[in-house]
Design goal:
Number of domains: 2
Distance between the termini: 23 Å
Strand content: 15-25%
Helix content: 25-40%
Number of helices: 13
CATH class of the largest domain: Alpha Beta
Number of strands: 13
CATH architecture of the largest domain: 3-Layer(aba) Sandwich
Strand order of the largest sheet: 3-2-1-4-5-6-7
CATH topology of the largest domain: Rossmann fold
Radius of gyration: 22 Å
CATH superfamily of the largest domain: Glycogen Phosphorylase B
Largest sheet: 7 strands, parallel
């Protein structure tokens, strides 16, 4: 199989794209890949490490607050379509896949205009701006949340696959808590606000962490590498551990009893796949407030609790943790509700969808536009 994959901007787009590539490689080892990303975002450094050919497009996102700057954005977009057409023709793929980020818009658009099969994947419960634009140019729209179908008119092209990162997480081995100086006999509450951390939440945690002193469970707070120095001198009880970063978070999640986190797409997929009860504190500083909608989707299904950032004051967090951990019936019901949402073969579903889409390809439609 010859595959072009496009994704960019954040790990929430890049890692699902890599999970799809990994699954195709496992199923068809002779497959060839080309990854099209941006010229200046994190994918340009991450993707080549996986022995994947990488081609950048010079493109920038829409400026919502500075409308006149979008004249330049439009020029980049139109040039990117032209460049993408050239790249696609030269590689001649069996399929072109978009996994989110503004770089996918010219790539999928160009591929469709050239007559190639196209698939887009949406990780969040609401469609991102690029995927909304690409709905009519995608042959298949793969979604991670069933509720996303409410935003799509042509439901015949929709396939509910889940997030491919969930299948990757399930393969991981459980982390030994003692490696982090924790006790295996005690319950673990994990607090983490993404790989970089959150300055807003961290400032609140400086005041709140001491409220967890001497609880009968342990708390592991991951600050993010840039914020650890702000916490290392805090005087806290032995049941509270603070670290700057933990590699391979899904392994740690397998050893976690309760997770307090943001509500990004990849984190949500792993919470569901690993059936980790959670208290979600969505970032309010994301496009279309999609983290809040992700969290509400899980809360509405009884599979998580939600505290908005603006409401994270006083002892609200420790009270919420205590109420959940001390109520075995409520805790087990949340795990049961999570188990109903688990898709343990998401990447496989996407692979099968790709294979079916390719098998229906008409070769004579290509290159005529």
């Amino acid at each position: 199989m010859r595959v072009i994959v496009s994704a960019g901007g954040t790990g929430g787009h890049i890692y699902p794209a890599l999970a799809i590539i990994n699954k195709i490689r496992a199923k068809e080892p002779d497959s060839e890949f080309l990854f099209i990303g941006t010229h200046n975002r994190m994918e340009k450094d991450i993707v080549p490490k996986y022995s994947i050919n990488y081609v950048p497009l010079t493109i920038v996102g829409i400026e919502r607050k500075h409308f006149l700057r979008n004249i330049k954005t439009l020029r980049y977009f139109l040039k990117s379509i032209k460049d993408a057409k050239k790249i696609i023709k030269e590689f001649n793929p069996d399929i072109v896949i978009g996994v989110g980020g503004y770089v996918t818009a010219p790539v999928i658009y160009a591929a469709k205009k050239l007559g190639y099969k196209t698939l887009i994947h949406e990780q969040n419960s609401v469609l991102g701006l690029s995927n909304r634009f690409l709905l009519k140019y995608a042959d298949v729209v793969a979604i991670s949340f069933e509720s996303t179908i409410n935003y799509i008119n042509d439901i015949k092209k929709v396939v509910f696959t889940g997030n491919p990162c969930s299948e990757e997480a399930l393969k991981k081995t459980k982390m030994n808590k003692s490696d982090l100086g924790l006790l295996n006999k005690k319950k673990l509450v994990l607090i983490v606000m993404g790989s970089l951390g959150s300055v807003v939440i961290n400032n609140k945690m400086k005041l709140m962490l001491s409220l967890f002193n001497n609880k009968d469970y342990e708390v592991l707070f991951i600050t993010g590498k840039n914020y650890y120095e702000d916490f290392k001198d805090l005087e806290l009880a032995d049941n509270i551990k603070i670290v700057p970063y933990v590699d391979d978070m899904s392994r740690l999640m397998k050893a976690t009893d309760l997770m307090i986190s943001r509500a990004g797409a990849t984190t949500m997929s792993e919470i569901i796949a690993l059936k980790v009860p959670s208290i979600l504190i969505p970032s309010p500083h994301v496009t279309n407030n999609h983290q809040l909608k992700n969290a509400m989707d899980l809360q509405d299904k009884g599979a998580a609790l939600l505290i908005e950032e603006k409401d994270l004051e006083g002892d609200v967090l420790v009270r919420t943790v205590d109420k959940l951990l001390n109520n075995e019936t409520k805790y087990n019901k949340m795990k049961k509700n999570l188990s109903r949402l688990v898709i343990d073969d998401s990447a496989t579903r996407i692979y099968n969808t790709i294979r079916n889409l390719i098998s229906g390809r008409k070769d004579d439609e290509k290159h005529n536009k």
